[in-house]
Amino acid sequence: MSKWLIPGEEAPRLPGHIIDDHWKTPGILRLPGAHNALAGLLAKDAGFDALYISGGALTASQGLPDLGIMTLEELCANVRSIARATQLPLVVDGDTGYGEAINTMRMVRELEAAGAAAVHIEDQVLPKKCGHLNDKTLVTTEQMAEKVAAARKARTHLRIIARTDAAGVEGLGAAIDRARAYLKAGADAIFPDALTSVEDLREFADAIDAPLLANMTEFGRTPYLSAEEFEALGYSMVIWPVSALRIAAKAMADMYQQLASQGSVEPILDQMMTRAQIYELIDYHGYEELDVSITKSVAP
User: Fold this and answer.
1) Residue 124 shares a structural domain with residue 185
2) Cis, peptide link before residue 211, omega less than 30° from 0
3) What is the pTM of this model?
4) Residue 299 placed within a domain
5) Domain span at 263
């Protein structure tokens, strides 16, 4: 069980400060995507120090497309659940800020309350698209800079990552210019999405003096690179946003096919986590012990 803060104890450091420390520490920060609390616990158990919450993964897990139709309340509920379960710093996909500048300010406050460490906001027009799809439409540099400045003004600790999708729409040079404007407006880090070559990744990193986030999504436009290769190119963070969801979806699809065709899942028991393994992962017995300790009768 996580330790409860009691009077007299030092307050824990805020998530935004922790993620900032990670950026300043040598080595690239690896951020696997977690689309629910169980996925987050599995990632933590594997040794990861921070997690990424992808809008595309969250919407897909709800049977919805990633077109900016998930609500802020739905996002915050998922962030709150994953933060509670893992107690890890979370980098969150904030899409386009859930509206204009004033809406972005509310998003920042709500995500801080939910336990997030950082949020990235993108410069697309709503309804947005996955950065690795075509026919994206961008807001002006000035409009995006206003959102970044508003987010910076609203935050107390949440780190602001400005994402630009300009490389595939206006060219790499425009993406670099936009990134510089977003940093001037108050962004703490930059996320250039859907860069299509090692050369473009390197040129962008050489041009921008700020922590950079790379996106190693599968079946996209960016070449497959390892965390170490991104680090060598000058990136501070790398996300695998939908990997866990894709693996889980394929495994579930296979299980349902097995059940539909054979009427039993016994032949694939070796592919499942056991009851004991899941109980250990979610600290079932720790909760039992806590329940006993707080309900124990005390004689008058």
Assistant:
1) yes
2) no
3) 0.91
4) no
5) 250-294
